[in-house]
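In this section we walk through a basic example: taking a raw amino acid sequence and producing a predicted 3D structure, encoded as discrete structure tokens. The instruction is simple. Fold the sequence below.
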Amino acid sequence: MSLWPAPQSFRAQITIVCLASLAVIALAAILIRDVISRTESRLLAEARGQCAGACRELVRQHRERTAWGGDALSSQPLQAQDLSLRGLTVTVLRSYEGLEGGFYRPEARALIGHADGTGAARAPAARELELIASAARQAGASPVAVVGAWDRDLVVVAAAALEGGSGAAWALKRLSGARDPVGRRRQLWYGALALSAMLGVGALVSLWFALRSGVAQINAGLRRLEEDFGHRLPPIAGEFGEISRAINRMADRRTALEAELRRQDRLAALGKLVAGVAHEVRNPLNSVRLTLELLERRLRKGAVRGEEVGAAMREIDRLDGILARLLAFGRPAPAERRLQEISPLVRQAVGMVQEPAGRKGVRIGVESEQEGLAAEVDGAQIVQVLINLLLNAIEASPPGGLIRVRQSLESGRIALSVTDQGPGIPEAVRPHIFEAFFTTRPEGSGLGLAVSREIAAAHGGSLEFDPGGPGATFRLLLPARRSTP
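The resulting token sequence is shown next.
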């Protein structure tokens, strides 16, 4: 089980990341402090302290030696003095690791008693000799330290004057590699680490604000969608843009599905209603028709005139046709499909509407881009659809107008278009033209286009209104099949 609680919000996650970054900054600060503690200045201070302490001890030991032996030491030759004082130097410097030293005679410009804590020391270089002489010249009762630098090395020399002005005691320490560029690069790397950590925190804060802004926009858009589903989220930059576009696509899809579901609900409700009405009306109509047939037989005997009876029967037949369409809309008749060419069906439908077209002086022209187009259809139902479209076109056409019936093949589908030269369909009416019982004609039933669209859908096709161009154009699309030889 984790000791850390699971983050409950994005803010908690950002807080954890920020704390981790601050920990990195603290670690970098500790490392930098450690490096600073070992810098050149600290090393020099330590070397100066060691050299000064050694010088004071050498002066004290020299004073005691002189007091015990008188001035006999200074009267001896330099070689004898060097041999005698070397032992003193070794004794003193055993307590100072890494130091070498001795005594400097300014009158002879010579080093005597030169040694380190082990009793051996290499001869100082010329530059080191100049540094020892400079420190000796500046020396007083208190040690004076000077520093020399060559390449990556530092040399620290301290000197203190001997009593009586007979010279000076000196101590030297070499700091090899104190100016190592690798160490400086390491310091730069540590500084870069701290800077990177601070930049990381800044980037996280910026990211937090950007994410917070994006989330706020998404939430605002979703709240607006709850109130108005027609609203769409505005474009957003970055990854949140993908989320907003996905939400908009989902909203569009939902709108389309809801519209389709509403249409299906209306169709189902209307189908049940129409089926019930047709069932209730058809039985009385059958009785009326039988009665009229009986009256007609009597008329043949010369007892009654039959014009009124004939008119009544025609009206009953018209009402029966409306009821048949209602039944077809509520419960489409089973289709008897077979593979057949479409051109003969088009010609059949055109021939069946020639009489009403002739009364109005409307001409019907048939165009075909490709002959032999075939589909697996119920011919009678397709003819019914074409007759509905042609009758609507004749009704909308002006006297002497032309109706164009065009047959073509588009992307593997047969397209049958019917175009008239009428005033077209007003834009406010277009969304309702396929709805059942919607009509703009007083004598219309509002079922022709609704039934036609259902027939097209049952054949795996569609019936569409094309808003482009003058007049009105309806397109019947059917899946094409190869006709048998």
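Looking at the output, two observations stand out. The chain has four domains: 10-36+183-215, 40-179, 239-330, 338-479. DSSP finds twelve helices and twelve strands in the chain. In the next section we compare this with other chains.
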